[in-house]
Amino acid sequence: MITQMKKFIRQDTTLTVLLGLLIFLILLFGSILQDKFFSFDNIQSMGYQIPEFAFLALAMSIAMITGGIDLSVVANANMAGIMAGYVLTGAVFGLNSGMSDLTLVIIAILVALIVATLGGVFNGILIAKFSVPAILATLGTMTFYNGISTAITEGKGVVGFPDNYLSIGTSAPLGIPLVFYIFFIAFAVVAFVMVRTPFGQSIYLYGENRIASLFSGIKNEKMIIKTYALAGFLSGIAAIIMTSRVNSAKYNYGDSYLLQAILVAVLGGINPNGGRGKVTNVIIGILILQILQSAFTLFAFSPYAKRMIFGFMLLLIMVINFIIDKWGARSKSIAKDSEVVPQEAK
Amino acid sequence: MPGNILEANNISKTYGGVHALDNVSMCIKAGEIHCLVGENGSGKSTFVKVMSGAITPDNGEITLNGHTYRSLNPIDSIREGVQVIYQDLSLFPHMTVAENISMNKMVALGKKLVNMAEVRKTAEEQLARIGETMDLDCPIDEISMANRQLVAICRALSLDAKLLFMDEPTTALTNIEVDRLLKIVLELKEKGLSVVFISHKLNEVFEVADTITIFRDGRKVGDFNSKELSYHSLIYHMTGRNVEYPRYVRKATDDNIRFEIRGLSRPGHFEDVNVKMRRGDILGITGLKGSGREELALSLFGLNPSKSGQVIINGKTVSIHSPTDAIVSGLSLLPEDRYTQALFPTHSISENISSASLPSITTKAGLLDRKGERQNAINMVAKLHIRTPNVETSVQNLSGGNQQKTVIARWVLTDPEVLILDGPTVGVDIASKVDIYEQIQSFASQGMSIILISDELPELLANCNSVMVMRANKVVGFLSNEELEKPDAADRLQSMMSGGGDDFQPSIPVLEAQA
Ligand SMILES: Nc1ncnc2c1ncn2[C@@H]1O[C@H](COP(=O)(O)OP(=O)(O)OP(=O)(O)O)[C@@H](O)[C@H]1O
Ligand SMILES: [Mg+2]
Asked: Gene3D superfamilies from the xrefs (chain B) (predicted)?
């Protein structure tokens, strides 16, 4: 039993540390907040809140595994949400078009997914075809998508959606929120794609050494476009969840999610330099962040305080990762090894 | 003992059960050239890393200039005058020659402001010490590999090196450049510097060595005065057997042309290249670095578009615009530089081997066949004698030569019709070379057409049934199988390569890669 555990710990240090942290936080907040923390309401509300930014975190994670980043996830989701909102409020087809609510809802969902995916494809093209560094490309599109949203809505919210649309965000079969099922399935699918398909493997290889992946006959450009398209698609799902939960779409919704998405990805062990990290570990990162969120809410921290704490956490994790890496490298002799450190890619 | 600059006592280092170093003791005398030789994975690089303080041994102590250290750190090591020139040289590619030579010294002196005049002066002084001149203002990424090496040496000298470790410094150099480097190393010795020199090329070792220490499986076989050893006894001590390169004889009977290059040109890189190959042909291409051979290989692989000419495989003209196209058309390339162009350092051996064959290990359902991937890797590890506990190990934990074998395995696994190998045995020990040659020859015997780019003449003479020589972007000579078997073959190749004169300036190859 103990040897099994040791083996497990050695196999995946990140996972072990994350699980340890998760249990620690549950016990800590559980003992301070007691029933308030373990209440059905609190747990169910976590179940509603998790999926919302989980999809953004997932989108961020896969972009980071390529060695890039997608800063446009939230802006892209808002843009998609607004477009879907126009369909739902009848601004596109007119109120008397005779379409049933259900048809409208289906069209709206498709619109959200398509718009967000196209937003991702555009990122991918900028990065792959025009060699714009991901951080700049997506910073640009973040501003651009945000601009589109602001311009067409004139900064106002799009409100008033049909009930069947709202039920996406509110219904809870068997007591578990519907959005949580979606979250669960989507993560399982993406995790599977990442480890079991040639596409996923290419993402990791590219993230580690893009020249070597080019020489291996991997279609780098196509793969990057597909990856950012997938990130866009996931932002589209986030858009549907967000808008259906709050019954509106607005250009600046979920601003704080960008930081949180990066935080969760890094916390989950995704290496910002690319090539390393597991999507499944990101789930635990998400759970940890959500527990902190809920606890802070129960402690009645202000949003500004939360933001400060999360920002600080992000920096802290990066520093800790750096130290672990360096310490590991010294004992494993990776750092100075000429046979290990690739020359700077030109 | 006086006269010893370094004494290492009972050094051991294990990595998860692998004895990288097993109770090794060694002395380096002041002013000697001490060569370390041994098969891939025998512990040479690990020894260097321990002496530079980059890794801490499990056991043992190190005495430098009479000061004994139980755990040596890099700063102490540098203070004692130890400098290491790693294979990647760790230079700053965008900084100038002068800056690269002088910067570490300025930092070491605690200079807050950079005085360009001083930087240049230091650089000039150090270059003068090795009797070289160079354009001080040229950025590092625009000078040749050989000159970069000299810059790294000058940087070490500027830091008052007393003991210089060079781990396989000659792998990326052409023969002429190697001669120049060895001459400099000998001159440095005359000036009192101790040099520890690692190389798999034994002729280099005999040229410079005073003492030769042989490693095997992490243990020291012994220290020898280089005069005591012959080529054969050295190899015998290293490998425990007698090693001889197998000579390839083509047995295929199908004489149809399966691969043809017709008038292929890219001005400034290569001009009017014509090649015809049958099944089982092994064509050598040789020439100095910058003669166009590497550019030609990249071009065939879809990375350096040619301006005119045709490539024909099995009678069909193919248009190859990317490595993907090349692999699909049945043409694979083992690239020249394993660190930048081939390795995925943190990935496992099995993922490194499969990376160019992802489509063929994908099932109909679109999933990767991880079991098959693993099995392929296990087979390759056995075939090429890759030294590793298992195929899940990350390649970064392999020794240099074993990394190279892993990359060879990757390309062989694509099962191409035409396999281009650009420097396949760089950093590979002599016994493993035999393994690799046997594999290359057996693939050829099974019908693969192989292009072997190399500047090791014994390698070309053992494996090729024709050799093409390039110089200054042109094909300048061609030796047939009969000519290769004559005793003057090596000399003829040599003189064709250098063209008799030394006015030729090699250019830096350009890789026109996407993304
Ligand atoms: N960081 C590491 N983790 C695990 N094993 C390692 C690590 N570094 C080295 N080894 C192992 O230690 C042994 C000695 O490696 P080393 O790099 O010293 O060999 P070498 O003599 O330099 O070989 P080569 O001629 O191929 O460069 C090898 O078996 C290698 O796999
Ligand atoms: Mg080595």
From this structure: P-loop containing nucleotide triphosphate hydrolases
Q: Are B270 and B296 in contact (CB under 8 A)?
A: yes
pLDDT digits (tens, 9 = 90+) for B133-163: 888 888 888 888 888 888 888 888 888 889 9
Contact criterion met (CB < 8 Å) for B55 and A343? no
ipTM topping 0.95: no
Angle at B106 between CA B104 and CA B110, to 5 degrees: 110
State which residue of chain A sits closest to B48, comparing Cα positions. Answer: A337
For chains A and B, count residue pairs whose Cβ atoms are closer than 8 Å: 139
Q: Is the distance from the beta carbon of residue B320 to the nearest atom of ligand 1 less than 6 Å?
A: no
pLDDT in tens, B69-88: 988 888 889 889 899 988 77
Proportion of chain B in helix, strand, coil states, percent, rounded to 5:
35, 25, 40
Answer yes or no: CATH 3.40.50.300 is held by domain B4-239.
Answer: yes
Query: Is this model's pTM higher than 0.80 or not?
Result: yes
Condensed to tens digits (0 to 9), the pLDDT of residues A269-296 reads: 888 888 888 998 898 889 888 888 888 8
Q: How far apart are CA B455 and CA B291, in angstroms?
A: 12
Domain covering A17-320 in this structure, CATH number: 1.10.3470
CATH number for B248-330+421-515: choose from 2.40.320.10, 3.40.50.300, 3.10.310.30, 3.30.300.70.
3.40.50.300
Cβ(B313)–Cβ(B418) below 8 Å:
yes
Report the 10 Å Cβ neighbour count for A65: 26
